[in-house]
Amino acid sequence: HCLTVRAVCQREIDYDRQNGYSWKITLLRNYWKSKVKQEWLSGKYSNIRSRSSLPENSMYPMDVDTWGEILEAELER
């Protein structure tokens, strides 16, 4: 599971590990973020017309770098 999450959230995983978090805590901190981030990066939410049409689990607190990655992926589509 850790490697799967790291494939999507490498920067976040590396940051947590450098700050001394165990793999278990790191996984718990980043699992749902990786799921939501992967959905955004894959384009699942590319053609949403309004916030109300987004599924409930489409949002998760993410930093500016993560949103930058998502926006870059959108620009490439």
Give an overview of the whole structure.
By secondary structure, this protein is an all-alpha fold. The chain has one domain. Helix 2 runs antiparallel to helix 3. The protein is elongated, with a radius of gyration of 13 Å. The model has no long low-confidence stretch (mean pLDDT 88).
Tally the helices: 4
Shape: elongated
Largest sheet: none
Encode the helix/strand succession as letters. Answer: HHHH
Strand content: under 5%
Radius of gyration: 13 Å
Which secondary-structure class do the elements indicate? mainly alpha
- Report helical residue fraction: 55-70%
Count the domains.
1
Task: Summarize model confidence as the mean pLDDT.
Answer: 88
- The residue ranges in which pLDDT falls below 50 over 5 or more consecutive positions are none
Let me know the number of strands.
0
Termini Cα gap: 28 Å
Topology:
Blueprint: H1 2-8, H2 10-18, H3 23-41, H4 64-76
Helix pairs in contact: 1-2, 1-3, 2-3
In short:
The protein is mostly helical. The protein contains 4 helices and no strands.
